[in-house]
Design goal:
Elements: H1 12-31, H2 36-54, H3 59-66, H4 74-81, E1 82-87, E2 100-107, E3 110-117, H5 123-128, H6 136-151, E4 156-162, H7 169-173, H8 176-188, E5 194-203, H9 204-208, E6 215-219, E7 223-225, H10 229-236, H11 243-250, H12 254-260, E8 265-267, H13 278-296, H14 301-313
Length: 324
């Protein structure tokens, strides 16, 4: 697949090699010279360099990949995996929040309810989507759709991708904290199977507001955290430039989250990130969703509620080691 035009800082050595490859290829065409050996050498070096870079990303670098503007968003995965998506609008109280979308669809022939946080691709769309930061009416719309799913016995699938709930004055005036808190309670008691997929950013309560599910999956380069690295750095070090150090301390990346039991499965991404091959990323997600739905669907309501309760009660357990 062609390399995305947007480059991250740590990808620059790779771009230099690609420029060399392009230059040699152009010389070969213009001068009608066979340079296949030289081209093969650089291609091999590009492959090695790519594997070295992406196999040893730091937590902060993975945060940057999670925020990549070309990364697939919720609507991309919905389009790739589902058919007949019918978006439902409004919270029936105040407004229709475009940062949080939802509706019915068919996944492998099975009806499901989808709830997703959606970012924009350009400035105009980001303004419409409020940069993927839902307001109170977004979470109330999500709750309305969850209750609708419960009424018709539809599994609930949520896509998490937000830096956090919108912190503006108008959002606070309409009680965003209360809206999220109600969702946490109601999702814990939802009587249908539920899955959450963290596809990019999973920031704070804004992510948790649609994340209390039976299973939580996360893409390899996504993150899930109580606070952004920049916010943590600003509080602890009074300097947002310390975000890389904060990212490491927060243990917000997929491998750490799996080890801590916060997520149930890490979905692998194509080398370089999901934006390098969205179709491969969607295929990996599809396989994971089919597997988890097959495990959850046969369970009774009592089993779902009991296991969900145990899952969240177990989070945050720790043991104190004796000091010698």
């Amino acid at each position: 697949m062609d390399r995305p035009a947007y480059l991250l800082e740590f990808e620059k050595p790779l771009r230099e090699l690609e420029k060399q490859l392009e230059s040699l290829h152009q010389q070969s065409l213009e001068n009608n010279i066979d340079m296949s050996a030289e081209l093969a050498t650089i291609e091999a070096k590009i492959d090695v360099t790519k594997r070295e870079i992406y196999s040893s990303l730091t937590p902060w670098q993975r945060v940057q990949v999670a925020r990549h503007p070309k990364r697939p968003y919720a609507m991309d995965y919905i389009g790739a995996l589902c058919t007949d998506f019918q978006e439902l609008h409004g919270d029936r109280q105040f407004n229709d929040d475009r940062a949080l979308i939802g509706g019915t669809a068919f996944f492998e022939g099975r009806p499901i309810m989808i709830i997703a946080q959606q970012k924009g691709r350009d400035t105009k769309e980001n303004i419409i989507r409020n940069f993927g930061m839902p307001q109170p009416e977004g979470y109330r719309k999500a709750l309305r759709l969850m209750k609708l799913a419960e009424k018709f016995a539809l599994p609930v699938l949520t896509f998490i991708d937000t830096p956090g709930a919108f912190p503006g004055v108008e959002s606070e005036a309409r009680h965003v904290s209360e809206a999220i808190a109600v969702n946490l309670r109601e999702m814990a008691m939802l009587k249908v199977p539920s899955l959450a997929v963290i596809v990019g950013e999973g920031g704070s309560g804004g992510a948790l507001g649609i994340g209390v599910t039976d299973r939580v999956l996360i893409f390899e380069n996504a993150y899930y955290s109580v606070i952004s690295p920049e916010g943590c750095a600003a509080i602890l070090w009074k300097d947002r430039a310390q975000a890389p150090q904060a990212a490491a301390a927060l243990k917000l990346n997929a491998p750490n989250l799996k080890e801590l039991g916060v997520v149930d499965e890490v979905i692998p991404e194509p080398l370089g990130g999901a934006h390098y091959d969205p179709a491969a990323a969607a295929a990996a997600l599809k396989a994971a969703l089919l597997r988890h739905l097959a495990e959850l669907t046969p369970k009774s309501v009592e089993e779902l509620l009991d296991q969900r309760y145990e899952r969240y009660r177990a989070l945050g357990e720790y043991r104190e080691a004796a000091v010698k």
